[in-house]
Amino acid sequence: MWMPTEHEKYGVVLASFRGTVQCGLPLEIGDTVQILEKCEGWYRGFVLKNPSAKGIFPACYVYLKSAHIKNKGQFETVIPSEDTVITEMTSTLRDWGTMWKQLYVKNEGDLFHRLWHVMNEVLDLRRQVLVGHLTQDRMRDVKQHITARLDWGNEQLGLDLVPRKEFGMVDPDEISVTELYKLMEHRHRKKDTPVPSSTHHLFAQVKSLVSSNLGEELEVFLTIYDGKENQPLSERFFVRLNKHGVPKSPEKTERQCTLFVDLGTSDLRKDVYIVVHIIRIGRMGAGEKKNVNSAQYRRPFGCAVVSVADLLTADIKDDHLLKVYTCNTETEWYQIHENIIRKVNSRYNLSGSNAGLAVSLQLLHGDMEQIRREYMALFTRGIAITKKLGFSDIIMPGEMRNDLYVTLERGEFEKGGKSVARNVEITVCVLDADGLVLKNSVWAGSGEAGADEYRSLVLYHNNSPRWAEQIKLPLPVDKFRGSHVRFEFRHCSTKDKAEKKLFGFSFIPLMQEDGLTLPDGTHELIVHKCEENANFQDCIRYLHLPFSKGSLPGNSQAAKGIKESVWITSFLCSTKLTQNGNMLDLLKWRVHPEKISDSLSKLKEIDGSEIVKFLQDTLDTLFGILDENSQRYGLKVFDCLVHIINLLQDSKFQHFKPVMDTYIESHFAGALSYRDLIKVLKWYVDRIVDAEHQDHIQQVLKATEYIFKYIIQSRRLFALATGGQNEDEFRCCIRELFMSLRFFLSQEGKSGNSVTQTQAVFLRTFPCVYCELLKIFNVREVAGFVRETLGSLPAISHADCPLEAVKLQCIAKTVESSLYTNPESRCILLPVVLHHLQAHLQEQRDLVMCAQILSGMFSLMKKDDTEAPASEEVEMMVRNLLRVLLRTILEITNRPQPAGNSMRLQFQDVTGEFVACLLTVLRQMTDSHYQKLLESLKSKDDLRDFLLQIFTVFRILIRPEMFPKDWTVMRLVTNNVIITTVLYLSDALRKNFLNEKFDYKVWDSYFYLSVIFINQPCLQLETFSPSKRKKILEKYGDMRVMMGCEIFSMWQNLGEHKLNFIPAMIGPFLEVTLVPQQDLRNVMIPIFHDMMDWEQRRSGNFKQVEAKLIDKLDSLMSEGKGDETYRELFNSIIPLFGPYPSLLKKIERETWRESGVSLIATVTRLMERLLDYRDCMKSGEVDGKKIGCTVSLLNFYKTELNKEEMYIRYIHKLYDLHLKAQNYTEASYTLLLYDELLEWSERPLREFLSYPMQTEWQRKETLHLTIIQNFDRGKCWENAIILCRELADQYEAYYDYRNLSKMRMMEASLYDKIMDQQRLEPEFFRVGFYGKKFPFFLRNKEFVCRGHDYERLEAFQQRMLNEFPQAIAMQHVNQPDETISQAEAQYLQIYAVSPIPEAQDVLQREGVADNIKSFYKVNHIWRFRYDRPFHKGTKDKENEFKSLWVERTTLTLVQSLPGISRWFEVDKRDLMEVSPLENAIEVMENKNLQLRTLIAQCQARQGQSVSPLTMCLNGVIDAAVNGGLARYQEAFFGKDYVASHPEDGEKITRLRELMFEQAHILEYGLAVHEKVVPQDMRPLHKKLVDQFHVMKTSLGIQEFPAYVHANPLPFINGSPRGCRSSLPSAISPDGGRVVARRSPLSYPAGNRYSSSSLSSQASNEVSNITGQSESSDEVFNMQPSPSTSSLSSSHSASPNVTGAAPSNARGAPSDQASVCNRPSSVTDSVSETPVEDSPLLSDKSKHSRENSCFFPRDRPCSTAFPMPLDPGQRSLPQLISNSSLPRSDTSQPASEKVLSPTTCTWNLDSPKEANTQYSDALGKLVSPPVPPRPPYTGSPARNLRSLSPVPIPRSPQKSSVPPYTPSPTECHSGGLVSNSPVLSGSYSSGISSLSRCSVSDTSGLEAPPPGEPAPTGTLSTSVSGGSDELLRPGNKTPPPYSVYERTNSRRPVPLPQNLSIPPPIAPPALPPKPHQFRGTKLDSEPRRPEPIQRPRPLPRKVSQL
User: Fold this and answer.
1) Fewer CB within 10 Å: C terminus or N terminus of the chain?
2) Backbone Cα Rg of the chain
3) 158: alpha, beta or left, given left = phi > 0 and alpha = psi -120 to 50?
4) What is the distance between the alpha carbons of residues 1979 and 19, in angstroms, rounded to a whole number?
5) Cα separation of 649 and 1803, whole Å?
6) Are 632 and 644 in contact (CB under 8 A)?
7) DSSP for 175-242, written as a single string
8) Which strand (E) or helix (H) includes residue 488?
9) Angle at 1832 between CA 1828 and CA 1833, to 5 degrees
10) Nearest CA to 1508 among 1673, 1697, 1693?
11) Interval 1352-1402: pLDDT, tens
12) Residue 1896: helix, strand or coil by DSSP?
């Protein structure tokens, strides 16, 4: 049976448990579990990291740990009973573990590895703590180290700052808010600003000396030297080096290292140096020969210097190689370091180029205890400590030091009978009173042990040597008396004996007879002569002699007779010995009582270090004198005592205060002294007011603390000795003293008054008296003294009075004292403290100190402290401080922040302190406190002001900058206090400010506070880790939901006053609903229904609600708020909150449900787009998703919402995206949207986005220039030219000729770029996005995308898959079914499509350069095509062409490409089928076009490679000979097919014509090929000729006429000007060509397609028929279809199956030709006739024509796509007869047309009356006669809307017209003339001329009006000639190219009988271009239907933007 556990509550998993049993809970090793129940070896519980999953697990898998339980029961919380540091480590390491793995994923390797090391270190420390074997000090150090590491890791990972006390985490509920704030601030400051240390130490290590002249042992001395004072600061450090320059004992590293200790901050200056002196031990001269008997001398070697300032920036040991210098003369040795420092180069030089001393130096900071802990290894080895000369800046009590430093300065000696000066060596030793040498008493330095004697260095031949050597004599104190130092002088001979001869000595006693130690300073010692054998054992013999000249009378003969002297300098550093006689006299006052008065007076002259040395002795002396003779010396003793007490206030001696405290407690024995002390103190206080000089009195008051200590201790001693006698007397004296103090404090003085300054001095020391008084008086008595004393102070003084700050400092110390901590005394002190604080806060003065006092007061208030005294204190504080605190916080936060960082920090600190105080008060308030507070607000205005104040302060507290980012604990406490207070105050708001007392400002402030409260980042629990979220929910709950419920409740109470908040609160409430908390959303969303309802009642609609909702939604969601769940919730029917139904359900019940549902739908769609936009913007790179999403959102704002400002904002966002992606053309189109909204007006526009305030004209000009620049960068120069012209017109209108000139030059440069620069033609791809995982703007839609430069299908597909990495690429082109579109996945369907150009007039016009045409092929494209071959019906295995159909798909876009995006959605999809016969016709036409193009190119580029033509001829002829054409004949010319398809008669005839036409083209091509083929390819040419004859035989062609080799020559340069005069007599492929028709060559063959239904046999047959090969692909730029078929792309039929002209184009009735005689105006109107009305072209034919397939690269329009002609272009007149029709070579450029001046008399109304003479004449030249044929009706199965809209030039102004397509080089008419069969000439069997142009327009004569003869003898100018007439707006039609085209006739050519065409009798010409027969009639409608309805432009109010 399962039983609840009592003690087994918490455990750690020891082994992993899979949880495979029923209700099992999976466990992982290391998990912590909370146990709920137990049963027979099993536990039931949950893992703490996932409390929602509960289950059972074996008890043996868990290690139980002790824990204590909070809130025992259903919602109990288990906290392990372990050290808080361990608990924090465990939870922190778990959090770090998750984030540590993320660091690896984010590739943050450095932090990853550092954190890994820290985690391991923390784990090791955790184990040490858990073991429990550490000492207390070690445990403290380990915990400190752990917390430091935890703080470091939290800071690096951006986690919260943890408040700690004693290394343990603090529960915010267990301390006051002010204390919590102090802890947080302390940790924050500790983290940010480490306190600089005032004590420093220098570590030095001597490593080696590098020099070329070594060979002797060396002594190295290091010292710290003050270059400014020219004196050493420290002792010397001594290291011995061997003759190799390395330390003598390298294994003893401690002998090579030292620590120069106790350096002050003032010692770290640039002029402080480390000086190194190097002494060699050896012969006198460095170059002397070795001598066995030679003695060893200490001789100068070198010196090195380095500045201490160079080490300040180094944190680690730095190795330095110090340069070693030598002095030029030994006499300068004593100051060589000074010369080096001063850089006196003439006195020293470098000892060697490679000489240097290697040392390691490092500065250490902190006191010695800290250094010992941090560098423990140094001290364990016994490192040498080199002390500072003298005491450090701070003298510590207990420091024992007794060092006498002696410096050998210089000497003066006689020659002693020598011819040269002496080599003097001094031997120094110390002797005691018995004449014995003190062992080890002389130290050369700190690195080596002391010796019995010291030998100085020897200066060669110098009777006035200067040594400057320092030695230390560390003698015991008891050895000083009677001891002396002896100096022995010897001459060191350099002779062979090398003996040292004693010639004199000196001595000096260490202590004088009166007990004074040897005074500091320089002493001139007398040199007493002696012999070598002098006996020094009996020192008494010379001690009676004078030792210095100072001891001799100045005028004595002895002093004058002394000729030899030596100078030394002594310096004593002792804590026990004194050199001061006055101090000695005072301490011996009993011996000389007559000197007491004088000694007391001279005490103030004694140095403080001397006084603190003998502090206890001095104090005993003073109180001894006071006890024995208080009447006489009482005042002087008191003054001396004050002087000593104040001496201890100095920072140098402040550490001696504990020494005095110890003296008072343990050694003070003056039981009667209190009477005299009180008496003298009161005497001084009573005279303060009247005294003129306050300095001495201020010194007395400054010592008040210790005076009271002596008074109280004396009274205690007296009471103890007498049993408490005279108690009343003592109390009376104290009261009288305080009365005097109160009177003195009550005096009001002006600022700067001496009395005021004295008051300030007393107040600084007064709080220190409290503790002393408490030793005798009880708490209430002392509190009474303090209250009366502080109460006597004036409340407010002058603003600049220094007393005010001191008064607050006194109050602060009072609050911090134990007196205030006691609740019994606090109630007495609180009123006076609050009185002074309130006065200062009201005046807003000394806020820093006020904040400190308040923090101290509130630190004593705990959250759960509800006792009566505490409640009374809270009530008192609320009454006195709450209002003033609110006002203070408001004023502080509204002040401008100071500029300085330090001031700003202070400002921030003050704000935080006051905020913490306010929160403490509010947290302590209960119902009764709130009730009394509200009752105290007497009027409604007071309540209103209070509520506004507190709501405003709360809004300030919620600001992110109020607390540092990682202070989450402080923010949560603040929020908890705020919501608790708001819940209390909301009731007062309801009661006092509703109905007739409604106050909008208060309610608005309340709602605004609530909204920003919910939205603050620290409450967004979803962003926190699970463990942190769990802790917050357990402690505080979700405060957002609590506040949301309160908002809803308050909103419901408003009633009709809700209208006051509509629409103002829509945005804030919407922001609340965007918080991803389900309960909060359920509560808040119904408010929108309320708003809509009330707005509907007031206005009859809720447009305001809608507008505000939409505006705010965009800004909020762009900030990252909102999610998919919110969108679903907003539009769902799920019940929201309690009894409230869903928002949609509630709206559906209303009378205004239609508009409400519409609003919900609009908002939902907007959210869909905004969410997509936000998700897309998260990625770093600009891709199609970002641009497409922005376009979708932009269009939504324009079309559905009509939000002009948002529309323009997103225009510029899209523009920026395009610029970033370098889509300059799209960027231009995007910015053009804004440009179109503006007009050329002078209306002023406000500042908007990056635009300044300017006129509309100026902004439009700026936009124009920017767009032109981007069009130029995108190589879209034609569009830029139009904008240039428009801008030039404006400049011209304003007579701004300067800018006009620049604009015209810019326009000219754009023309040059069009002609000179190469432009790439992009590919186009159709992309389908299927599946629910795509964004809404892509989901289940298809788009056509313009590819990047050089981007092919494979690269584009890969790019799309990279943008959508989760997408699956579909491997077929069929439309997907419902399962794909509704799948929870992403599917991409991509294949290439061909553009269908709209600007056919430009593309078909002769003489237009390819650079110009290339623009119109791929720009302004609305429609695209894709062909898919398939078999219908039974497939004939012998001849698959019988059933080979083509499925042609035409895609129409919503906008043309390029545009504002690289892709646009498909608006319409049209599907049609092309029959096998039509397919064959298109294949043949394409191949003929290909042949024509190659022949023209070959003729135009003679001398270049002819391989493309060779391969094409070979492929076509070879295919025809091998049966390719025969399969067409078999499939379509058979009787069965003709009988079963009677409607295809015209098409069959057309196919026959194309076959024969191909033969003619091949004939002409072979003739051209023969002229240009190289010699090595002649055999191949012969083979082609032979095969061609076989082909003719198979087609039934017997022979060609004699003129078959003649052919007109096109104008290579595209201009007809050179051939106007005469008709050439001889026409040949290599001669000049003059012909009366245009070349039919327009485009090469298109891409091939493939299909899985086609077999390889069919593929080969297609290849044979078309003659395509691998080599031809290179010429015609073919590319495989995206279809995944088994058919090879190199052998499949061409999908670009350009339709052939219908048969009736060649055998049409005579009324067709009459069209050419119609004037221009007639033809213009005829061009608008719908194509369906044409009797010449069947629906099937139209369908075929409009659905030819194009593929992405270089796909010019072909005959399958009749392109609209410019009205200015007309076709050649055609002969109307039953036998023949005149033809025009439509592919020939304008420059190649030579026209005859013969007039044309044709007209449309009477075709039979046409000028047959002219026709005959023309026919002889142009075309052979063609037999009549029935009209071509085409296939009735085709019915497709026409292809092209009426092109209108795009204006930058507002327009709904599609993008402009015409060339910018000419003005255009309103419509275009479509291709018509009548304009193309007849289809004869002659071979026409060839053109090199790939694309050309139909052109012809400008026919005169009916009845008027055409003008003769006129020669018009070509369009390419640049005629001014052609550029005039009224000139719509170009003139005829040549007069020869009108007059020259041609002979009819009969066709072979098997092709039903008479054979030719005139020179043949190449057949005309097929596209001229596939066109519509002139009276047909434009090829594009009515333009798609585009969004209307926005209203003109946008002009303000």
Assistant:
1) N
2) 56
3) left
4) 85
5) 127
6) no
7) S-HHHHHHHHHHHHHHHH-PPPPSEEEEEEEEEEEE-TT--SEEEEEEEEEETTTTEESB--EEEEE-
8) strand 484-492
9) 150
10) 1673
11) 999 999 999 988 899 999 998 888 999 999 999 999 999 999 999 987 788
12) coil
Residues 1139-1166: tens digit of each pLDDT: 445 666 666 666 676 777 777 778 777 8
How far is residue 1323 from each of residues 203, 656, 1040, measured CA to CA in Å? 75, 92, 54
Instruction: Assess whether pLDDT exceeds 90 at residue 1241.
Output: yes
Cα 94 from Cα 1454, distance rounded (Å): 56
Enter the tokens of residue 1046.
């309160």
Q: Give 3-state DSSP helix, strand, coil % of the chain, rounded to 5.
A: 50, 15, 40
Peptide bond into 1847 cis (omega under 30): no
**Is residue 802 within 8 Å of 758, Cβ to Cβ?**
no
Residue pair 56/21 in contact (Cβ under 8 Å)? The answer is yes
Distance CA 1169, CA 1337 (A): 7
Token pair in block for residue 242: 């061997």
Q: Compute the distance between CA of residue 1505 and CA of residue 1503 in angstroms, rounded to an integer.
A: 7
Tell me the pLDDT tens digit for each residue of 1847-1866: 434 333 333 334 433 444 34
Closest of 1637, 1546, 1598, 1960 to residue 1779, by C-alpha? 1960
Tokens read off for 1153: 């449900």
Q: What is the mean pLDDT of residues 1402-1428?
A: 88
Residues forming a β-bridge with 304:
276
pLDDT in the model for residue 368: 78
Select from 946, 1019, 1042 the least CA-distant residue to 988. Answer: 946
pTM attached to this predicted model: 0.61
CA distance 1514 to 1009: 87
> For residues 1917 and 1911, is the Cβ–Cβ distance under 8 A?
no
Q: Using CA atoms, how far apart are residues 728 and 1277, in angstroms rounded to an integer?
A: 111
Tell me the C-alpha to C-alpha distance, in Å, between residue 1199 and each of 1165, 1191, 1193, 1992, 1993: 13, 12, 10, 8, 9
pLDDT for 173-223, tens place per residue?
Answer: 888 888 888 888 877 666 545 556 677 888 898 988 888 777 888 999 999
Q: Helix 1545-1572 vs helix 1507-1521: angle between axes, to the nearest 10 degrees?
A: 130
Burial of 1870 (0-12, 13-18, 19+ CB in 10 A): exposed
Alpha carbons 277 and 281: distance in angstroms, whole number: 13
> Which token pair is 183?
């802890």
Amino acid identity, position 1603: Y
Q: Where are the alpha helices (DSSP H) in 1933-1987?
A: 1940-1943, 1971-1974
pLDDT in tens, 937-967: 888 889 999 999 999 999 999 998 888 888 9
Q: Which residue has the tokens 């094409």?
A: 1512
* Amino acid, single-letter form, for residue 1607: N
pLDDT of residue 1600: 47
Closest Cα partner for 1268 from 1862, 1854, 1864? 1864
19: alpha, beta or left? (left if phi > 0; alpha if psi -120 to 50): left
| DSSP-derived pairing of the beta strands 1421-1431 and 1444-1457 | antiparallel
Can you read off the two tokens belonging to residue 485?
A: 């130092």
CA distance 1976 to 1974: 7
Q: What is the pLDDT of residues 663-687, one digit of tens each?
A: 888 888 888 888 888 888 888 888 8
* Structure token pair of residue 964: 């540092």
Strand partners of residue 321 = 358
Cβ partners under 8 Å of residue 1981, min gap 6: 1728, 1729, 1730, 1731, 1732, 1842
